[in-house]
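Worked Example 4.2. Consider the chain below.
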Amino acid sequence: MKPRLCLASQSPRRAALLRQAGFDFWIYEPKVDESSLQDEHPAKLTERLSAKKAEAAVQVAASENRESTVCLGSDTVVVLDDLILGKPVDSADAARMLKHLSGRSHEVMTAVTVAHGTWRQSRQVTSKVTFCHLSDDVIRDYCISAEPYDKAGAYAIQGYAGSFVESLSGSYSAVMGLPLCETTALLALAGIHPCWKERVCDE
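Applying the procedure from the previous section yields the following structure tokens:
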């Protein structure tokens, strides 16, 4: 039986990236505690959470007799001065994060895990992003938009905040939330490949 792909994520950005790469999949939205453990390194946190998301989807697939399902989980954190910047809780929190990021470089760490039965493989990607100086007016106006509030570090590189980025070293898709190069390679190991031919034929 041909394996099917499940994206274990609540993120519309990850779904859009996976679709853009040519994959067909169904979505499961796992409920995972994303709190970090004491003294846990950000890279370890993202790998642990990406694995938890994928494994939660594996359990659901098994309970629904979908044992052929390959499950994909991913997690992203923004790190500045060794501190994790999570998703802002309100506009004041978003403004605080953006002021810290203004005119400085930070790291975006994204882990992806692919799971099928008892098989697991993970990859970690770290990108360096440098912001230009952000005035108080720019930060205020950006926080009025809906964009910062479900994003690690209070910004979306593919949205209005793309104009904040002075330079990027690493993976653009990983900063968005899903490193497509590494994800495609992992999925190939599990027998999942993009559906380019089918899409060309359908058009």
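The domain at 4-202 is CATH 3.90.950.10 (Maf protein). DSSP finds seven helices and seven strands in the chain. Compare this with Example 4.1 before moving on.
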